[in-house]
Amino acid sequence: MAAAAAVNGVKLGTTSQAYLESKAVNDTRALLSDLCRHFYTLGWVSGTGGSITIKVHDDSIPKPQQLVVMSPSGVQKERMVPEDMYILSPNGSVLSAPSPKPYPHKPPKCSDCGPLFMKKAKRRLISWEKRSRNLKYEAYEMRDAGAVIHSHGIESCLVTMINPLAKEFRISHMEMIKGIKGHGYYDELVVPIIENTAYEYELTESLAKAIEAYPKTTAVLVRNHGIYIWGDSWINAKTQAECYHYLFDAAIKLHQLGLDWSTPNHGPIQNVKGVLGSGGNRNISVKAGTAGSNNEFEPSWRCIVLDIEGTTTPISFVTDVLFPYARDNVARHLSATYDTAETKDDIELLRSQVQDDLEKGVSGAVPIPSYDAGKEKVIAALVANVEAMIKADRKITALKQLQGHIWRTGYENNELEGVVFEDVPEALARWHGSGIKIYIYSSGSRLAQKLIFGNTNHGDLRNFLSGFFDTTVGNKRETRSYVEITEYLGVDKPSEILFVTDVFQEAVAAKAAGLEVIISVRPGNGPLPENHGFKTVNSFLEI
């Protein structure tokens, strides 16, 4: 049944001619023609290549039922006008097609065979246009996108050619990473690369697999071809497209200078096969070794993943400083930030957790009243629950997210300073200088991790770190969590990752996933089982 939209106060089906000629549709047509001309000047849609699709934003229609405006293929993008655009239904059928123009213009390409748009393309002679749209609709179907941009920008093509074996593009510590949804300056951006084919419809399956395998990505690179980028709106998709192209261009130029764009300090290239950003197509070996007479170090691992509490940082700092600070400042923080979107999100996450705790009979859980009960009563209930969660040392996202926001205020006000063991900075610098990528995996939120390492008693250590993992990847005592990390890091085999922790159960889970494991023995750590079977170190300098 077609969705109904209000035009001049009258409800109309979205497939009606009146709605197809409505202001919402016409505005989207005009916007698309403007973007085509702009993208042409950027080199993204030259030679009639590339395309853009945008959903017709209409508050009266649910997003999945909104119409899609699409630029035609094989025509001069810089000369397009609003009337040149196709209007497609939510399932991809053509509702309105442009009229052909006289010679020498080519006729616009867009199939009227709608049912195939939302299906996987089949290996037979379907028109190219149908196959192309399958790719766009993967993003609409799988990611609830509001717009999809397909660029043939030279940067997106060349960056996939530097290392023909690479399955991913990775880059870290670049300001423009902040323009990619879900990423900050200190995060590692990972973009999957799929292989090009002679016919674009043949990309449909590999594109869908890439989108599924990389749930955080908002883009997929196609080797020797270009890139597909999506966002929840045309502004978001355009912004991200600009940032992606900037980062690709920066990576290419860094590579030309012999610098590795994927490492935090963008130092000299040291090759790791299969990951774009670790040395291109050179074939320098990365193998087990030790420090030689010239003080060079050949790493045994491509990545080192570190726990925090009891590994990089004394347990006492967490239990005697961070936890009490969060507990003592919950009420002040919630009261000061109660009406902000961030705190509203924290409250809803806690509300959901507490409801689950109440159903399971978890000790210390008390009901959180609705907002109608008033700010004071809501905060009082939140404080009671948070105090109980901290006392029980619960490793749950709802608590860790709020704690991170409270600690951020503490660091900003110089009321907190992160603490790491004396050997940590030197070891991080040595590993980093050897080309090893270093990551943090802690039950604390990613924000909390960045705050500790950005404000330590030895200064800001984040430049040595390539990324952060928290409990959103999984419980630290579950093997699946380490499988997820292995897949994210893109190594050829799990044993190329070293995990260092002070917790025996975490060591067992990581080993079961195939990672190399070392247990950190630090002052204040709990006892280990006899005959536990793991190598131990008292200092990172022993690794």
Automatic annotation (TrEMBL):
<keyword id="KW-0028">Amino-acid biosynthesis</keyword>
<dbReference type="InterPro" id="IPR027505">
    <property type="entry name" value="MtnB_viridiplantae"/>
</dbReference>
<dbReference type="GO" id="GO:0019509">
    <property type="term" value="P:L-methionine salvage from methylthioadenosine"/>
</dbReference>
<keyword id="KW-0479">Metal-binding</keyword>
<feature type="binding site">
    <location>
        <position position="476"/>
    </location>
    <ligand>
        <name>substrate 2</name>
    </ligand>
</feature>
<dbReference type="Pfam" id="PF00702">
    <property type="entry name" value="Hydrolase"/>
</dbReference>
<feature type="region of interest" description="Enolase-phosphatase E1">
    <location>
        <begin position="304"/>
        <end position="543"/>
    </location>
</feature>
<feature type="binding site">
    <location>
        <begin position="442"/>
        <end position="443"/>
    </location>
    <ligand>
        <name>substrate 2</name>
    </ligand>
</feature>
<comment type="similarity">
    <text>In the C-terminal section; belongs to the HAD-like hydrolase superfamily. MasA/MtnC family.</text>
</comment>
<dbReference type="Pfam" id="PF00596">
    <property type="entry name" value="Aldolase_II"/>
</dbReference>
<feature type="binding site">
    <location>
        <position position="152"/>
    </location>
    <ligand>
        <name>Zn(2+)</name>
    </ligand>
</feature>
<keyword id="KW-0456">Lyase</keyword>
<feature type="region of interest" description="Methylthioribulose-1-phosphate dehydratase">
    <location>
        <begin position="1"/>
        <end position="260"/>
    </location>
</feature>
<feature type="binding site">
    <location>
        <position position="502"/>
    </location>
    <ligand>
        <name>Mg(2+)</name>
    </ligand>
</feature>
<dbReference type="InterPro" id="IPR017714">
    <property type="entry name" value="MethylthioRu-1-P_deHdtase_MtnB"/>
</dbReference>
<dbReference type="InterPro" id="IPR027514">
    <property type="entry name" value="Salvage_MtnB_euk"/>
</dbReference>
<dbReference type="GO" id="GO:0005737">
    <property type="term" value="C:cytoplasm"/>
</dbReference>
<feature type="binding site">
    <location>
        <position position="225"/>
    </location>
    <ligand>
        <name>Zn(2+)</name>
    </ligand>
</feature>
<dbReference type="InterPro" id="IPR036412">
    <property type="entry name" value="HAD-like_sf"/>
</dbReference>
<dbReference type="GO" id="GO:0000287">
    <property type="term" value="F:magnesium ion binding"/>
</dbReference>
<dbReference type="InterPro" id="IPR023943">
    <property type="entry name" value="Enolase-ppase_E1"/>
</dbReference>
<dbReference type="InterPro" id="IPR001303">
    <property type="entry name" value="Aldolase_II/adducin_N"/>
</dbReference>
<keyword id="KW-0862">Zinc</keyword>
<dbReference type="GO" id="GO:0043874">
    <property type="term" value="F:acireductone synthase activity"/>
</dbReference>
<feature type="active site" description="Proton donor/acceptor; for methylthioribulose-1-phosphate dehydratase activity">
    <location>
        <position position="175"/>
    </location>
</feature>
<feature type="binding site">
    <location>
        <position position="307"/>
    </location>
    <ligand>
        <name>Mg(2+)</name>
    </ligand>
</feature>
<dbReference type="InterPro" id="IPR023214">
    <property type="entry name" value="HAD_sf"/>
</dbReference>
<keyword id="KW-0460">Magnesium</keyword>
<dbReference type="GO" id="GO:0008270">
    <property type="term" value="F:zinc ion binding"/>
</dbReference>
<comment type="pathway">
    <text>Amino-acid biosynthesis; L-methionine biosynthesis via salvage pathway; L-methionine from S-methyl-5-thio-alpha-D-ribose 1-phosphate: step 3/6.</text>
</comment>
<feature type="domain" description="Class II aldolase/adducin N-terminal">
    <location>
        <begin position="30"/>
        <end position="252"/>
    </location>
</feature>
<feature type="binding site">
    <location>
        <position position="150"/>
    </location>
    <ligand>
        <name>Zn(2+)</name>
    </ligand>
</feature>
<dbReference type="GO" id="GO:0046570">
    <property type="term" value="F:methylthioribulose 1-phosphate dehydratase activity"/>
</dbReference>
<keyword id="KW-0378">Hydrolase</keyword>
<comment type="similarity">
    <text>In the N-terminal section; belongs to the aldolase class II family. MtnB subfamily.</text>
</comment>
<comment type="pathway">
    <text>Amino-acid biosynthesis; L-methionine biosynthesis via salvage pathway; L-methionine from S-methyl-5-thio-alpha-D-ribose 1-phosphate: step 2/6.</text>
</comment>
<dbReference type="InterPro" id="IPR036409">
    <property type="entry name" value="Aldolase_II/adducin_N_sf"/>
</dbReference>
<feature type="binding site">
    <location>
        <position position="309"/>
    </location>
    <ligand>
        <name>Mg(2+)</name>
    </ligand>
</feature>
<feature type="binding site">
    <location>
        <position position="113"/>
    </location>
    <ligand>
        <name>substrate 1</name>
    </ligand>
</feature>
<keyword id="KW-0486">Methionine biosynthesis</keyword>
<protein>
    <recommendedName>
        <fullName>Probable bifunctional methylthioribulose-1-phosphate dehydratase/enolase-phosphatase E1</fullName>
        <ecNumber>4.2.1.109</ecNumber>
        <ecNumber>3.1.3.77</ecNumber>
    </recommendedName>
</protein>
<keyword id="KW-0511">Multifunctional enzyme</keyword>
